[in-house]
Model the fold of this input.
Amino acid sequence: MLYLDNSATTQMLPEVKDSMLPYLLEEFGNPSSKYYSLATNAKNAVNEAREHIAKLIGCDSDEIIFTSGATESNNMIIKGIADYYGEHNQHIITSKVEHPSVLETCHYLEKKGFTVTYLDVDSYGRIYLDKLKEIMLQSPPLLVSIMWGNNEIGSLQPIEEIAKLCAEQNVFFHTDATQVMGKVFTDISTIEGLHFLSCSAHKFHGPKGIGVAVIKKDRNNLKTKITPLLHGGGQENDYRSGTLPVHNIVGMGKAAQLAFANFDQNVEYLLDLENHLRMILKAKFGDVIVFNSDETKKIPGIISVQFKGINNEMLIKNLAGVVALSTGSACSSSKPSHVLQAIGLHADGLRSTIRFSLSSLVKKEELDIFKQL
Ligand code: PMP
Done:
């Protein structure tokens, strides 16, 4: 079967699996224990993984906090800032196209008395910077949380410009970078106003159940403190207690090492694959199709397409034995997509949209299957 649902999850690379196996079997020590080699081997493996991930993100390794994935990282960062600083400022700015793990966290905080501004987006899913600036001046927020790239339509947000605004106004900036790791240049070392980042390993060929919350060290006048979600033994600089899942961390480290080493080659390949798929779809379906995202300023390998007059669920079900596709997010597949609604699609557009999400494991000739449908 041709797997084209890589925004939902990716296949783990064999090298990643091989790197993990020793830590599931003979090297089973707890990295927080001391003095004997089983423990120190585990600790060294965790540290090495931390270095690889830090290199991919362009942060220091002690700014990496391991979590169970981006859902936890988003919850931990947003609730953690709200709890730590909420007495002084209860305004948060986010956008209408965020992942549910950001939106639902914001809804929860609204019930606790916070005010959340949900920014509109243009027809390609990008926020309006002028509007953000205007709102920031009118009612200075505690936190701006805007995703780096969208999981349904692939559009990229102007992260550097948002970070600049946040730095000027002394506001915390968090970005959900889950969909862009290994596909977009994510070195945050030069992005001065970015304080927090979330991601998950399984979106870049690592294992499921492991992710990272990056908490940058204090910058300018801002002390990047958060209240932890999980209290306990004090692992991860006291930000996330619990025994570390060493095998998963090692797997995420290997996936990050490979994503970093093969970055240029992977991006070039994904762009080539995407162009090939666009050409096939245009030739086959002509005027029936409309691309929901533009061709630039988007994540390589994610395309969202409306097939006018065709029911997306029916098409996907009919193809299910041959190609794995989705209408949009796997996280909220039973509801009409809030992302497609935010970019202005109505009932027919919502019912006819299909997301194709590619990966470097897809072979170009495999896409020719769409010529035969
Ligand atoms: N943010 C974005 C943009 C995502 O695409 C996802 C996964 N669909 C998440 C957060 C949550 O990741 P996880 O399910 O690994 O916690």
Observations:
- The chain has eleven helices and twelve strands.
